Amino acid sequence: MRVLLTGWASFLHGEATAGDVLSLRAAGDALARAGIGHDVAWSPGFRPGARHLPDAPPSDYTHVVFACGPVHGPQVRSLHERYAACRRTAVGVSVPDPDDPAVTGFHRVLPRDDGGTADLSLAASVAKKPVLGVVLAPHQPEYGGAGRHDAVHTALTGWLAGLDCARVPLDTRLAHDDWERCATPDQFVSLLSTMDVVVTTRLHGLVLGLKAGVPVVAVDPVAGGGKVTAQGAALGWPVLAAEDAGDRALLDARLAWCRSAAVDPPVPSLAGFVEALVGER
Q: Where is the Polysaccharide pyruvyl transferase domain (predicted)?
């Protein structure tokens, strides 16, 4: 007996959601605990170096399992055609139309939309990963030719994409009529406080990250140093130069340092500002 695990994350024109992948993991773990050999077929768009459906000949398997997602459409029906000699089971799936050939092609269907079955993803093990808030500066024409924003952001986002972490794009700009943005600074600092680390090229990404008690990987996008470097000096917090953005070893080291760094930024005194105003009266 050998099982091929499939799902929407197996199709070239499918999609790999967190729920899909966790459901395949849960099914695979259950098979492994039972001592049943199995392979997982992945979409080449999601995992290019893994086993894909064309690499999984029907003669290698006795059973095919389709896990998670709605059972409908030509891609699911194609499994019945390719693996016609295998026993086919759908588990943890939604069944919008019980008479759809995509559904009736399975020998057995174990649905999740029967009102009494919990989703398969709940059975999968997960590892806690660091959460990185990413605050990138917009183009800043005031720095003229010294601005290296595009090159710095390309290097930073390329580095971030390769990290085993959750990445959360954040924007310091506020809006009262856009649900995707915070409406008040209090909301934004509260959001920052839920991050493990902030990665930023923006002055207020650095300042407000530290204000929220979160360590910050700060990179100045201006060659020779601009306001991010100056503010880092004022706060006693290290800031990487624009040319350092392409040094992944240095970025890795700074991120590792941030994971345990103490955060206690100085609070400026406004006494001089008030005295200056009073003195002008």
A: 181-220
